[in-house]
What we know:
Chain A is 86% helix and 0% strand. Chain A has helices at residues 2-25, 29-43, 48-69, 77-117, 120-126, 131-169, 174-182, 188-213, 218-252. In chain B, strands 1-4-3-2-6-5 form a six-stranded mixed sheet, with no helix packed on it.
Amino acid sequence: MTGAIAGLLSKIGERGYFMRDIGRGLRDPRTYGGETIRQMRNIGVDSLPLAAIVAAFIGAVTAFQTRYQLFGGVQLSVVGLISRQSIILELGPLLTGLVLTGRVGARITAEIGTMRVTEQIDALETLAYDPVAYLVVPRLLAALIMVPILTIMANAIGVGTAYFTAVVATDVTSAAFSEGLRLAFAPFQIVYSIIKATIFGGAIAFFCSYEGYTTTAGAEGVGRSTAQAVVITSVAILVLDALTALLLAPYLQA
Amino acid sequence: MKKRDDVLVGLVMLVAIIVAITGSLWLARGGLSKGYALYAKFPWSSGLKQGQPVLLAGVNVGYVDEVKLRQDGTVLTTFRVGKEYQVPQGTVATVVANGIFGDMAIALTPVRPNPRSIPENDTVPVGPSAPGLAQITGKADSIATSVNAITTAFQKDLVAAGGIDEMRRAIASTNRLVNQFSVIAAEQNRQLTATFASFRKATSGIDSAKIDSTLVNVREASANMASISEELKATSLKLDAIVAKVDSGNGTASKLLNDAGVYDDVRKLLAQLDTVLVDFKNNPRRYINLKVF
């Protein structure tokens, strides 16, 4: 029992050290500056089609299902309201985060893990390069910036397809949907979505980089680290989602 | 390669920021145009918030821009109305509930049509607000007091002064009256029923089949009568002809009837027959000569 607690604490502690290394790496912009742009392209721009497709389907399904969950007599503008709230507050950031965990997180772990097992990281250290500043910090910054950007796009696309689906495939009129879309809107809802996305982006880059950075035991170890990174990051995103909601949802009631 | 990354990343970020800002603006106030500002000073804002709609005669014409609680305890509300909309003078502003989700809106209600409109940056007068819970409770309280007074008066007049007993007696006599009425009604009903029953019996006694056959017989009889009268007519015509013929003096019959000589001859013949008969009675032997052997 005490062994298990000690093991858990040591795992948290190791990640704490890793976080400290990242903080130290941030003081060295020349090392990560150029690489950050490349990672932003990798993580952000190249993930745009995937995030867009996911958001499009989520938006369409949300609007469609919402329409057919309503019992008789409910104003159809509710479809717009519920679609907007579901997509912007929850589905946009969460699903973008989870999808990027698979596309970006696994890639980060595999890249850094392979560098670790092929001793390229050791080589960087030998050349007096800070490997965390060169490998982890650009990915973390890119994820912190680009996941919110992708989430904004996903929100817009999701709401757009929700509108399209509601108007084309159901009896909700354009005016009713727009009315619901604008009902009880506060700009903080967008900020809330961006806050969530930033947290998820940070979680993806941090947990996946850590798993890659601490990979051992060759090619098999890379595979194991990658799988573990995806699982840990997915769970972490869900937990962080719940925590964000607990902390910030009261402020949504503007 | 690196240059292209910069451009792409910058483009995506720029697009996302534009989407976020214009999307928020569109959701919050229905577009980029700000419209013109109007003010209203509410005594109670009912939780009105920035971004909530402004309805002119029920049509969405703008949004709430700012809600500010002033030192004097009133709520100064700035709202923006689209440039294409004019708020007629004499319009009053109220804070109303909008939809079922507890949203509020500013309702601008024109009292009557007016071609002149409220200019920009003017203050719209505030109309009577919808009653709050406290006001309703107050009203309910005063109603309860009145009800209490009425109950006391009732108590005094009806219970203490024996009014209820009188009412009870009146009700009892009314009951009796009603009972009598119902007895009479029952009797009437019984007699009516009997009358109807006998009437029904009488009507059912007349056999329509018999009437039918009688009618047929009558029709046949009249047809026979018609034929008989035809025959009679023919017969009388013939008789007429005979009579005419007799009258005209032609033929035996007419001569027999019209000739006076024949009459005389017959008289003479009868007189002779008389004498012959007298003679016969007196002297039968002259005429009947019976010889047996």
